[in-house]
Specification:
about 575 residues; mainly alpha; A middle domain of Talin 1; two-stranded antiparallel ribbon; 20 helices; 2 strands
Length: about 575
Amino acid sequence: MASFSTSRPKSKKIIRFLNITFLFLFFFYLATSYFIDQPTEPKVNTNHSLLLQESVKTDGCSGIHDYIDYKSKCVYVKSHIGCRSKGYINYLQVFYCSCGQFSMVGYFLLLLWLAVLFYLLGNTAADYFCPILESLSKLLKLSPTIAGATLLSLGNGAPDVFASVVSFTRSSSGDVGLNSILGGAFFVSSVVVGVISLLTGSREISVDKSSFIRDVCFFLFSLCSLLLILIVGKISLWGAISFLSIYLGYVGVVCIMHFDHYRKKNRLPVYGSQEEDFLERGVPLLGHSDHEKPTPVDKTAVEDQPSSFCNLDSSFSHYLGSFLYVLEFPLYLPRRLTIPVVSEERWSRPFAVVSVASAPILLAALCATHQGKEFESRTSLVTYLIAGLIGVVLCNLACLTTEKSNPPNKSLFPWLAGGFLMSVTWTYIIAEELVSLLISLGYVLGINPSVLGLTVLAWGNSLGDLIANVAMAANGGSDGTQIAISGCYAGPMFNTLLGLGISLVISSGSKYPSAFVVPEDPSLYETIGFLMGGLVWALVILPRKNMRLDKSLGVGLLAIYLCFLSLTVARSLGLLRLHGVS
């Protein structure tokens, strides 16, 4: 997912709206969970009670639509194990019990929360994950090509990767992760490439033939490997590791081609000064330049606010500006207080000290939650005490080794490693809740959750790629177009190989020495078929057009995606029924 700037006025308004939405939903959840729902339990008749007792023995929560009145559905949700959310909020209970007969209110609240989660997922990657990866690439002195094939792809694909891992490891709905990864890959490689081709067709811009064929062929090989795994229906630990290692082979080929290109072009040794030449051209490693980087929330934001209220009293505008500044805190502070940030622009010693102290406690809470242990238990209490002790030690070290005005220059790697770990933790937490919400929405709407993963989750995670890559191609000339097209294939391939690869390794490792049974979803064959059709179309058309992007490529790719989308929507609405696909 591409980075977004948070310094523009429109973005500020959106952020405040999302923060106000979060506060409203938070207090609504507290009020309905602890004050309204507690005193009374909905009553149902005897026939419904007997039916509920029988339904508890079934799997899943699909039987919710067997009942008409909301009280019966509420009892079903509370008594049925399959309806319990794998996240932190029981969305079905909120919809059927808290909202009750006001179903439209329930839909509205769930959609608002969906928007907040999408914002948090993208903003965490943009404001924390990507800057940390950029600093790591500079600290490790990685060449731009290697950084682009590894850290750039990791930064852009973090939401998709973690959503896939969560769906396999926590939600027991691996088909959501599979459909999300493949749906996002199809959207980027078809819609984004198609839009770029239509916008740049009149300029007759050519892309590098060797890089394009390399990326598309590796992508096709990855999809063929995945198709073989789905046909077999199960995979061992070593098979999952082999699938994951395909990406290492891709990175190796990228590095060899990069070094060979520079050796021929510049007649320099392999270990020349490629990185210095690249940096001198001012091209950013992680997809955004300095003026596009998200600006931190600081005191200057408060000082700038009164200027937009020039017709008001200065003291009133000051308080109003301060109030608007505070409204940005609910979604900002929890992450800022637990993710160490050592960039020059966002350095704050108090935040740094507090973050290293609170980060171990958050990790301990996450471990305790996943293990199903209560805080009062002796084991969890010891875990929290150890985490608190580690936090105190790290807090004292941070106080002794940092300055108020500047971030640390020495021993920077532990800070970056800690920031990387905590940004990954937050991305995992948000992705876990997002997948849980989509599964619950699938039950509420009567739609297979995998269809929501294929559409809503895939579109939400790929929207940033659409905006960033199209803008880069439209404004960056031939070089910008080349970077955008490369990202449209390298990024989805990274998500497919690492997102699904890591998920399969974790899942098969938990079943070792037995094989892991891959979730059955016949629609996956359809998705992979259309995705491979789009890749083959591009692989055939571009060389015939001398690698020039034109309208024939764009129209063909968009037509393929629209056919696939029409088929998916028709099937989900019951207008079309394929053999073995529900």
